[in-house]
Amino acid sequence: MNYINLLDELKQRNLIFHITNEDLLKKKIKNNFISLYCGFDPTADSLHIGHLLPLITLKRFQIAGHTPIVLIGGATSLIGDPSFKSKERLLNLTNNIKIWTGKIIKQISSFLNFHCGSNSAVILNNKEWFEKMNILSFLRDIGKHFSINTMINREAVKQRIQRLDQGISFTEFSYNLLQAYDFFILNKKKEVSLQIGGSDQWGNISAGMHLINRISRKSVYGLTLPLLTQSNGMKFGKTESGTIWLDPQKTTPYKFYQFWNNIEDIYVYDFLRLFTFLNCNEIQIREKNKYKNNQIIHDKLFLSKYMTQLVHGKKNLSAAERITNILFLKNINKIKKSDFQQLKKDGIPSIEVYKIKDLQEALVLCSLAQSRTQAKNMIISNSISINSNKITNKNYIFCDNDKIFCEFTLLSRGKKHHCLIHWK
Predict the structure, then answer these.
(1) 179 catalytic residue (yes or no)
(2) Of these four, 42, 89, 105, 266, which has the most CB atoms within 10 Å of its CB?
(3) 89 catalytically annotated
(4) Annotation says 200 is catalytic
């Protein structure tokens, strides 16, 4: 990507929600390589896919020659950002934040290049400067530059103040100043001139720009990215079964792969623009032909593969594809033992048994049938499979050949209903 037209490209990809002094910023990055930053508070032991957009955007800037700085909020995570939160966050323990920080740094490290010379990515922690500051210095040197009138009129704060059942504590109210100070310190020490973040961070980013202008008399810039929501209004990355995490122990690669594979069709080409490095013109051509030869299905599959490999690597993508082939394409010959273990973990219904009398009993135990009579009718009607092989014998009894790796049997009713039997 050519750094000369980087902002134009971000616009084409619908990546810009807010931007300050666009013409000046465009001129600045045309003539110079800049340093920019994005902050991540370790409020859990993993990032989720809502964090992917800022990480990938940092990567776009780095590819264009700019220096990305990741700021871990070791201090601010002790406070909690109230931006558009309906209620007060639970305060996290210091030791938990320390552990979570290590895990999140490891995840972030796979997205950016930390060994590419002059624009190598940098990770910092705001705990470094907040630990050295006392409350009197902060209130005297930083607090005096902020008007309470302005702060309480920020939309995110106003929403909480108007809710008498929740309100907002002074702890969370002070978060805006802390993030502003982060921008000030990074501008002073690392010459950071641009902060990026989600659109809910606009108030915090603006506060940092204000502080730098008041103290240093410098012009800096802010750019926010769209917060993605689904058609039901739910935040992108969260489903009825929970958040889609980047940690494979919390959301396995197969489940991650299926999340992208099951997105609504209306999002496919928007997501190709937002999350991938495919050329915008190519995406436009694909979108124009989306109903020809099932193009949209191929593009959704491309997105699923691309995102899974980006986050989990080739090996885990292969595992996710194998499991998908097993469940949907009935290709069970290529399955590995680890795939069965992942399949069991992924929310596919499973049972552990020592002995089962016959197939009818198994169908009832697996909740694929409500009674033995219903199970028998299902078998006779040719809708039951064991390890992708149709079974029509209503009195079928399991044998050793049904136990893959002497441990697992995949029992299926039709194409969409499965249960994994784990023989003990």
Answers:
(1) yes
(2) 42
(3) yes
(4) yes
